Amino acid sequence: MSGTLLPRPLDAATGGVVVEDPTAVVEGFLAAMAAGDPDGAAQLIDDDILYVNVGLPKIRGRRDVEKVLRGLDRPSLGFEVYLHAISAEGNVVLTERTDVLLLGPVRAQFWVWGRFEVVDGKITLWRDSFDFWDLLRANVRGLLGALIPSLRPKPPATREAPPGR
Questions:
Q1: Do residues 68 and 51 touch, judged by C-beta distance below 8 A?
Q2: Any residues with CB less than 8 A from the CB of 67 and at least 6 apart, and which?
Q3: N or C: which end of the chain has fewer CB within 10 A?
Q4: 2 found inside a domain
Q5: What is the count of structural domains for the chain?
């Protein structure tokens, strides 16, 4: 890939989701989250979904995962996602991405690897993995960036840019 390619920010402009295509389902799910559309994201999850942030307690079932999705739908909170890579084999979709959590002026962006399993157009497994030290660094930099704007992280400039930096 060329160094001039930008990571793809996902937003509502992604368009409709082709239910038969697991990659499109995952892209639509992430785009809905980035657009602050928990209802749109929830339409793409299975009733028996398992959500795992590796190292944290598992969350099972649509109702509890919807609570997580709605938690990001507040005026002072925001979420962005930048895809560095996405790949699928059968119903399994793997992502490498930069996720950004916004809390007022604090911008914490960090690397995330995700595995999604899609059955009949619905996400049945959403497993994210990240480095806790990277997450800590992202939060410290985000806090410092709120105080000193020149330290505020900017969205990834290229697909080859280290995710989360």
A1: yes
A2: none
A3: N
A4: no
A5: 1
* HSE (side-chain half, CA atoms, 13 Å) at 59: 17
Residue 158 lies in a domain: no
- CA separation for the pair 91, 127 (Å, rounded): 14
Catalytic center residues: 99, 128
- Strand intervals (E) in the chain: 8-9, 45-53, 59-60, 77-89, 92-103, 106-119, 122-129
How far is it, in rounded angstroms, from Cα 94 to Cα 72? Answer: 23
Determine the structural domain holding residue 84 and report its residue range.
8-151
Does some domain include residue 82? Answer: yes
Q: Is the pTM of this model over 0.85?
A: no
What is the domain-level CATH number for residue 69?
Answer: 3.10.450.50
Q: Tens of pLDDT along the chain (165 residues)? A: 333 334 454 544 444 444 569 999 999 999 999 988 999 999 999 999 999 999 999 999 999 999 999 987 788 888 999 999 999 999 999 999 999 999 999 999 999 999 999 999 999 999 999 999 989 999 999 999 999 998 888 888 877 777 666
**Is 1 a domain residue?**
no
Residue 29 sits at φ, ψ, to 5 deg, of -60, -50
